[in-house]
Write a structure and sequence with these properties.
The protein has 711 residues and is mainly beta. It has three domains: 3-262, Porin (Beta Barrel), CATH 2.40.160.40; 296-386, GMP Synthetase, Chain A, domain 3; 420-687. Helices cover 13% and strands 41% of the residues. Strand 2 and strand 3 form a beta hairpin. The termini are far apart.
Length: 711
């Protein structure tokens, strides 16, 4: 087949239409996800950017090639992708694409991208691509590719006019992955690619493309036959959350893909399922509240009534007191994800229950028995502003935020309801990306409990019993020069099918102004037990926080009982070291909460294998509670000693359950997409680290969620 004819035809069509047609993109026409799980047609990329924050997961493949891709629109212009592929073996890769220009009346959308820039280099390629919408139902794409996208119809790299070094592409691919292949970027031969998307209606779109990827690696490794650079396909979108594709590709292959799309800026369940809050009671019209709490006996009775009323709306009263015309209330929000929403509900309850002479409410939201902040509201502002335009902004402007360090309110509210909590739930545990067996999983029953000696002193634990699964099919442990602090994780509970996941005592405190403390003792996680201590400095109105953590830990036995074990020496873990493996670890941490929903964190210190280094994290949290983040750790462990992956890195996702069910709950579901568990850069996993406990009750996070104050 004459590929040059196809190239000239499609490129001429794309170039002519892009430059001559005055059309603007249809905002309702979302990106098509390709077999690579990224915005594209079938093989080739497009310059279409998904909606800011959009998350997708794609399974796609043809012949002996299968790909699973997780994609996230990190910024309006920047998308990031993690891919797990099978060619002749399992392979991990990372992509990124940046939109240089949005589509205009005459200008196409233009993007620049990198495929497999952080991996083994099996898919390594770079590109510049332009996409233009014609009318309302046709999109055309044309681009220039390097690497794999420059292997059909290639020509001398035009960047050679800048430096002749661009004309040659070095082979920087590595078997262990995890290395940025910067030496290859935009080097070697370049080639054109192009394609067309034709939307038949809101559900069906027809695709055609010219791909400049020769699939040389697949031909060499698997015997794949590529007979044509032309690919054709069709996609079906039955709703906003699903995209299915079928393809006739490379002249002799049938391909399929399925994409799940999530917009974390919207709700899954309809809003309005919350129970309605009490309306603000206007003084003079309120015949329920007592005239005053003049005596200690009156106050005790009033606090008891207030505690019972708060409990009906999902709040736990810790204590209250009246000082002059101010009512100070310390409470715990047990139901509402956003502390701002809890704050608003408590304030409205107080307008109904507080004595009429009280003008000021001092509210102290708490978690784990420690007061997070002090928010002062004027009762008259609540009475005047509740039903006015812009009420949320106006009440926020009048609220005073301060630290809540110091003694608890004089009158405690005693209740046994929250002293002992327990539950039994089904669980699903998946282990992914193991090259020997890429998917392992267990299903079973998980029993959890929490007993409070005091609100800030608790005993908690988790026990699991496997009912079915294959996580017990554990092969040899990969060889390493490091202690096996993480690479043997699959062995824990594998033979017994059950065990103690954690069992610990935790004590939280407020040692001083702007200071928070934690001490945890026991079996802290699946692999380690010991003692963990932490101190956090976090002013209520500051977006910056600083923390310090120091731990002494021992390696637990594989049976997840009460014993400890030494480290493994051989691959099968039949030879052990002398004595239990213990290690002192610790980190100094800095946290910063940006105004646009992003939170950055840097941890510097010593890790479980005794290595020293730093972890860099960036998370994005949406107003509805969705949280997506990424991290990487670099330590003094050389890449070759670290093993496959070269260094620790991963993507994490946290989904609030109230988003899914529509009713109030603080519970979340979290997942960590880690390329694989290795020993370098491994950090202790501790429940209830202080920053995550504290931040939601501080001014910056409340400001982000203040729109829920009146809900």
């Amino acid at each position: 087949m004459n590929s040059s004819k196809h190239l000239v035809g499609l490129s001429a069509l794309a170039l002519t239409t892009i430059l001559s047609t005055p059309a603007v993109a249809d905002d309702d026409w979302r990106a098509t996800y390709s077999l690579y799980g990224t915005p594209g047609i079938i093989d080739i990329p497009t310059a279409v950017a998904p909606k800011d924050g959009e998350i997708s997961a794609t399974l796609g493949g043809f012949g002996d090639t299968q790909r699973a891709t997780f994609s996230f629109q990190l910024l309006p212009r920047l998308s990031a992708n993690f891919r797990y592929s099978w060619i002749d073996t399992f392979d991990r890769s990372f992509d990124a694409q940046y939109q240089l220009a949005y589509e205009g009346e005459y200008r196409p959308a233009i993007a620049i991208g990198l495929r497999d820039f952080l991996g083994t280099g099996r898919y390594s390629s770079e590109y510049i691509v332009a996409t233009k919408t014609l009318g309302s139902n046709v999109r055309v794409t044309g681009g220039l590719g390097w690497g794999r996208l420059g292997t059909i119809g290639g020509f001398t790299n035009p960047l050679g006019v800048i430096d002749e070094g661009f004309e040659t592409r070095p082979d920087d691919s590595v078997e262990t992955g995890g290395t940025v292949l910067a030496g290859q970027f935009f080097r070697g031969d370049a080639a054109f690619f192009g394609g067309v998307e034709w939307r038949l209606n809101d559900e069906w779109t027809v695709l055609a493309e010219y791909s400049s990827d020769a699939y040389e690696r697949e031909i060499e490794l698997t015997g794949f036959e590529r007979k044509s650079p032309l690919n054709f396909g069709i996609t079906w979108e039955p709703n906003d959350s699903v995209q299915l594709g079928g393809y006739y590709a490379y002249g002799n292959e049938i391909g399929l893909s399925a994409t799940i799309i999530v917009d974390p800026t919207t709700r899954s369940a309809p809003s309005g399922l919350d129970s309605p809050p009490l309306p603000v009671a206007i003084r003079g019209e309120n015949v329920i509240a007592a005239a005053s709490w003049a005596t200690p006996q009156d106050q005790a009775v009033g606090v008891d009534i207030l505690g019972q009323v708060l409990a009906t709306d999902g709040f736990r009263l810790l204590g209250a007191e009246v000082v002059g015309t101010a009512l100070r209330v310390r409470y715990e929000n047990t139901s509402f994800r956003a502390e701002a929403q809890g704050l608003g509900r408590v304030a409205r309850i107080l307008t109904n229950a507080a004595p009429q002479n009280i003008e000021t409410f001092v509210l102290e939201p708490s978690r784990r028995g420690i007061a997070l902040s002090s928010v002062t509201l004027r009762r008259s502002d609540l009475e005047r502003l509740e039903n006015t335009a812009g009420a949320s902004d106006r009440i926020y402007e009048r609220a005073l935020f301060a630290d809540a360090a110091g003694p608890a309110p004089a009158i405690e509210f005693e209740t046994d309801n929250a002293a002992f909590l327990w539950g039994v739930y089904p669980y699903l545990e998946l282990s992914l990306f193991d090259g020997d067996k890429p998917v392992r999983g267990d299903v079973g029953i998980e029993a959890t409990f929490q007993y409070e000696f005091r609100p800030n002193l608790l005993l908690a634990g988790t026990f699991r019993q496997r009912l079915a699964g294959n996580r017990d099919e554990v092969g040899a442990i990969a060889a390493s020069t490091l202690p096996d602090v993480r690479r043997s994780v699959l062995r824990y509970g594998a033979e017994t099918g059950n065990g103690i996941e954690n069992l610990f005592v935790a004590w939280y405190g407020r040692p001083g102004r702007d200071l928070y403390s934690r001490v945890s003792v026991g079996y802290l996680e699946r692999q380690f037990g010991g003692i963990s201590t932490e101190l956090l400095w976090k002013p209520t109105t500051s977006r910056l926080a600083l923390g310090a953590e120091l731990n002494y830990t021992l390696l637990r036995d594989f049976d997840l009982g009460f014993g400890f074990r030494p480290t493994c020496i051989d691959e099968d873990c039949t030879i052990r070291g002398d004595g239990d493996y213990d290690v002192v670890t610790g980190h100094l941490s800095a946290y910063y909460d940006f105004e646009n929903g992003y939170q950055a964190q840097v941890d510097v210190g010593r890790y479980l294998a005794g290595d020293w280094g730093a972890t860099f994290s960036l998370d994005r949290e949406f107003d509805n509670g969705w949280k997506v983040g990424a991290y990487f750790t670099l330590t003094d462990v050389p890449f070759e000693d670290f093993g496959e992956g070269s260094f620790d890195k991963g993507i994490r996702l946290e989904i609030p359950l109230d988003w899914a069910v529509g009713t109030p709950t603080r519970d979340t579901s979290a997942a960590n997409l880690q390329s694989l568990a290795r020993d370098g850069g491994a950090r202790l996993e501790v429940d209830g680290r202080l920053y995550n406990v504290v931040r939601n009750g501080h001014a910056s996070q409340m400001q982000d969620n203040w729109g829920r104050f009146w809900r």
